[in-house]
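Need residues for this backbone.
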């Protein structure tokens, strides 16, 4: 009996389960049917959208080659929209580098003709103009002369942007004199082709083959520079490399020691991001970008890493401290010279980073000149207390940068100021005040005090299509005293204790020995292009610098005794 009852309950439960399962399946089937209907409707909609997209893509391709489109297609909104996309994309590719490089130059770092807000404003304005040109081109029925006029407007915009940043013209003219004739031929042919055939895609391709932008100059300069930076030939005996990129066996710091201490990645960064070399107290300090710097002790052979990529340094003999200015790390580090341990760290955050350090022993003050910042362009510190004494805006207005400094024996810092105007200025560290500024019509990059401390010299990399200049200034008024023509590209300048001026050429890799009394180049040595931070070491009578061949020094006494040009 019990088994029968259990069986009945089992069958009832099974029947109930089957009933509910059937109901659930029915409901699921109903929902699936509804879902299937929705899927089918969605699929139909997607098919329609896909067909429209395909049709639009066809029109885009046809708009690039008007000859393949029928008259009815040419009158459709799809066709005109596709033509607008083609024209806008092509012109955007051509114009974008021009607008960007109006503020971010490459062949001569640290120089720009426009402040960032003005560059952005002009860039937005130009983009709006070329968009309007593309809309008119795409939706109007004008032919021939009308199309040529709009193409001409576009290239006037490009030319104007480049003209605002004059240095690139000089660099291009000196290094690639074929560029502008080739560009003129390509543009003229492309504009004529576009106007007559209505095939803008081929026109854009022809123009892009020459690329009317500053980017082409920078890339080409790098390629040509790489090809011969390690050209065969013996180095002059008076040029010695701390780190030699071309021949590791001919360097003062053992290559194996560098690899063991720093590791492969940092060794590569030191080569690719070279910046400065300075020698002091039996050590050499090698500075690269972004936390890649180190010191090497010639006696012990010890390498100590420095926690920033320094651009310049100052040694305070009274306290035995070393101050490292690290712009990209937005920091200044203070080290004890004897133990090479870090004692203090200044971090500036969004304020910017210091590039230049000048110190006055009488007032025990340190002048830190900053790169592009929103307000203050310099800070005066106490060398003893290590506290900031004064923030200096130097000039009212947004932006601005101190791009080079030098200091006279009487404690006056002379500086070059850019990005918010182009000025030469004089600042008295002892009284902590700006003495005078002078507006400049040229683009100065280097500045130094003369051999006797009674004159100021500046370098202008380009003042004509055929050359730059060295200009002598009166320290009291900052007015011109004398000028001398130089090859295009002169940058750093230093006054030696022998009475000569030493000037580096960033583009050619030459260092010139200048007899200023006779206004002539008395000697030349080639040390590799892209020379950075050439400084004169009065204690050792050396020139120290970094170039595409490595971190090096030039023994001036040996150079003079060797005679000749010193070319490879």
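Answer:
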């Amino acid at each position: 009996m019990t088994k029968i009852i259990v069986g009945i309950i089992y069958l009832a439960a099974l029947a109930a389960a089957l009933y509910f399962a059937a109901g659930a399946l029915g409901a699921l089937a109903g929902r699936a049917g509804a879902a299937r209907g929705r899927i089918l409707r969605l699929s139909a909609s997607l098919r329609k959208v896909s067909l429209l997209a395909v049709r639009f893509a066809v029109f885009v391709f046809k708009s690039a080659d008007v000859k393949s489109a029928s008259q009815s297609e040419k009158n459709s909104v799809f066709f005109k929209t596709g033509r607008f996309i083609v024209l806008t994309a092509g012109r955007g590719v051509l114009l974008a580098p021009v607008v960007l490089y109006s503020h971010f130059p490459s062949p001569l770092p640290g120089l720009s003709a426009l402040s960032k807000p003005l560059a952005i404003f002009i860039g937005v304005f130009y983009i709006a103009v070329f968009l309007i040109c593309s809309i008119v081109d795409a939706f109007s029925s004008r032919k021939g002369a009308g199309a040529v006029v709009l193409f001409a407007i576009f290239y006037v915009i490009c030319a104007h942007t480049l003209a605002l940043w004059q240095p690139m013209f000089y660099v291009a003219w000196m290094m690639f004199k074929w560029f502008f004739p080739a560009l003129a031929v390509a543009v003229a042919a492309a504009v004529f082709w576009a106007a007559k055939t209505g095939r803008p895609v081929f026109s854009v391709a022809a123009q892009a083959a020459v690329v009317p932008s500053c980017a082409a100059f920078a890339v080409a300069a790098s390629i040509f520079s790489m090809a011969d930076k390690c050209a065969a030939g013996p180095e002059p005996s008076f040029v010695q490399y701390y780190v030699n990129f071309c021949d590791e066996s001919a360097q003062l710091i053992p290559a194996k020691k560098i690899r063991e201490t720093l590791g492969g990645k940092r060794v590569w960064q030191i080569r690719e991001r070279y910046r400065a070399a300075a020698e002091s107290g039996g050590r050499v300090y090698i500075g690269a970008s972004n936390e890649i710097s180190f010191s090497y002790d010639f006696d012990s052979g010890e390498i100590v890493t420095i926690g920033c990529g320094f651009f310049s340094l100052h040694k305070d003999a009274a306290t035995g401290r070393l101050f490292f200015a690290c712009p990209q790390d937005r920091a200044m580090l203070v080290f004890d010279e004897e133990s090479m341990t870090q004692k203090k760290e200044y971090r500036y955050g969004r304020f910017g980073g210091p590039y230049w350090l000048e110190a006055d022993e009488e007032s025990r003050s340190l002048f830190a000149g900053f790169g592009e910042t929103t307000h203050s362009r310099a800070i005066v510190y106490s060398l003893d207390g290590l506290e900031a004494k004064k923030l200096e805006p130097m000039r009212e207005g947004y932006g601005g940068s101190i791009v080079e400094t030098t200091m006279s024996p009487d404690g006056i810092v002379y500086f070059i100021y850019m990005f918010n105007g182009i000025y030469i200025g004089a600042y008295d560290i002892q009284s902590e005040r700006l003495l005078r500024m002078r507006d400049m019509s040229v683009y100065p990059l280097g500045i130094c005090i003369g051999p006797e401390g009674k004159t100021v010299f500046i370098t202008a990399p380009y003042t004509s299509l055929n050359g730059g200049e060295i200009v002598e200034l009166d320290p009291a008024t900052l007015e011109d005293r004398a000028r001398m023509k130089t090859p295009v590209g002169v940058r750093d300048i230093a006054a030696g204790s022998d009475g000569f001026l030493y000037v580096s050429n960033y583009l050619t890799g030459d260092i010139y020995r200048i007899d200023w009394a006779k206004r002539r180049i008395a000697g030349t040595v080639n040390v590799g292009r892209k020379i950075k931070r050439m400084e004169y070491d009065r204690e050792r009578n050396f020139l120290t610098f970094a170039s595409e061949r490595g971190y090096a020094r030039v023994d001036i006494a040996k150079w003079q005794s060797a005679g000749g040009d010193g070319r490879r």
